[in-house]
Amino acid sequence: MRKLLVVSQHRLSDEVVEALEARHWAISYAADLEDAQSADKQHRFLVGLALFSEKPDPREESELRKLVSSFPDIKWIAALAEEEINRQDVKRFIAEMLYDFHVFPLEAERMATVLGHAFGMANIERDLNKRSPQPQSKTPNRFGLIGDSDVMLALYRMLQRAAESDVSVLISGPTGTGKELAARAIHDHSSRSKGPYVAINCAAIPPSLLQSELFGHEKGSFTSANNRKSGYIQSAAGGTLFLDEIGDMPLESQATLLRFLEDKIVTPIGSTRGTHVDVRVIASTNVDLEQAIQERNFRSDLYYRLAFLTIQTPSLYRRDSDIELLANHFLEQVAAEAGMRNLKFSPEALAALRHYRWPGNVRELRSVVFQAALSCDDTLIQPEHLKISAGPIPVAEPTHHEPLERHPPAAPPPYVMGTLKSAREQSEKTNLEFALERNASNITRTAQDLGVSRMTLYRLMAKHGVARSAANR
Ligand SMILES: Nc1ncnc2c1ncn2[C@@H]1O[C@H](COP(=O)(O)OP(=O)(O)OP(=O)(O)O)[C@@H](O)[C@H]1O
């Protein structure tokens, strides 16, 4: 039986279903990313059909594109309205993401034939991949990243795809998962690699200055503008502009950025003359932008412009097979920097690293390994050398170093040994953090997951000092 994943809010017509079933296709429907992920876990699809509405709907389009780009191993065919394929962005989507496309009304026989071809191609590729397995490596690969887990291999394929195209990319993922490295890798492997790569952190620039930093200003256009200054966009001309933490961009700058992405014209503050600038934009976020849109903190039209291709960097706990590789890599790094030799992890220390939840992801792992190496007098790092760094999670508890908490906790941590009340509080906080992590900080889903209202969830987050953006740390 050939398995077909149909992602859509709609159903295929009886005629198409009959033609597919006659060719031994079993059809599974998925309405959203979560559905698709759980169906894929069960069936491992090789072929997918993105079934758009017959009447164009930009929100649905963005959802489907995101879904398609989340499964780079699947050969995708899309069914969409004829007027859609004249749009530039849709043409790019077709060229870069799809195996083939159909326009409505669907011809059952043609659809069945194309799906059959896609299935044949996917089988050949899968077979080739099986025969040349990736070697395990603790040195960074050509993208500057370490990790051989399935989720990382899928990430590399997405990076390659992004590097081969010139569309805007939105990289989302918890803090410390390598979003900045991913952006750099896309630039370095793209046709713009000889051009500049300019990275700015939207959260680090005061909102009142961001507009002029991005677009530049004329002399005298505001009180402190003593000279004419060109902005970051201009300095990235011919290359890539990386906008880190785009979710923190003020609404006013969002509007100007959107205009720029639409016409690629930069008009400095205080100027009436615009200049065309050829720049590719890659943005990253560790907050849920869809939630920010609902809360009216982020413009949906800008989101659709930026999220042409979406790439997710996975949490470290979703790829625990990479932990040892990363830990050994960082150990070699610190040993080389500090002139230490023969430093190794004991089997117990490695087990502790594998079982920890890593809320601060790779950044936290790096810091824990560095601290352990520097505090170890012997050549063998033991579990007691591994300390949670005070940095990544803003915790209500004292920030002294504590031994690694295991996931799931093997034994209650020491502070749970106090009163029943404090144990309850701690358990509430841990569950809250896990649920936020599981749901990528999406408030609605986390609240549902925990069986509480959104208001209660906000109250609990305030009580325990867990911020949404920090929830993934
Ligand atoms: N796969 C990886 N291989 C090697 N090092 C990595 C990997 N992922 C992340 N790192 C390292 O972890 C640290 C954090 O990475 P980076 O700054 O790219 O994360 P980020 O997701 O952009 O974080 P933030 O959201 O906080 O800005 C860096 O030191 C980076 O070199």
UniProtKB/TrEMBL annotation:
Q: Name one GO molecular function term.
A: sequence-specific DNA binding
Please name the Gene3D superfamilies in this protein's record.
1.10.8.60, Homeodomain-like (1.10.10.60), P-loop containing nucleotide triphosphate hydrolases (3.40.50.300)
One of the GO biological process terms: regulation of DNA-templated transcription
Query: Which CDD domains does its entry note?
Result: AAA (cd00009)
Name the keywords, alphabetized.
Answer: ATP-binding, Nucleotide-binding, Transcription, Transcription regulation
Q: Where would I find the Sigma-54 factor interaction domain in this sequence?
A: 145-374
Q: Does the keyword Oxidoreductase apply?
A: no
The record's Pfam families line, in alphabetical order, gives: AAA_lid_14, HTH_8, Sigma54_activat, VpsR
Q: Which domain of life is it from?
A: Bacteria
Q: Which SUPFAM superfamilies match?
A: Homeodomain-like, P-loop containing nucleoside triphosphate hydrolases
Q: Which PANTHER family does this UniProt record tie to the protein?
A: TRANSCRIPTIONAL REGULATOR-RELATED, TRANSCRIPTIONAL REGULATORY PROTEIN
UniProt protein name:
Sigma-54 factor interaction domain-containing protein
Naturally occurring in which organism (per UniProt)? Imhoffiella purpurea
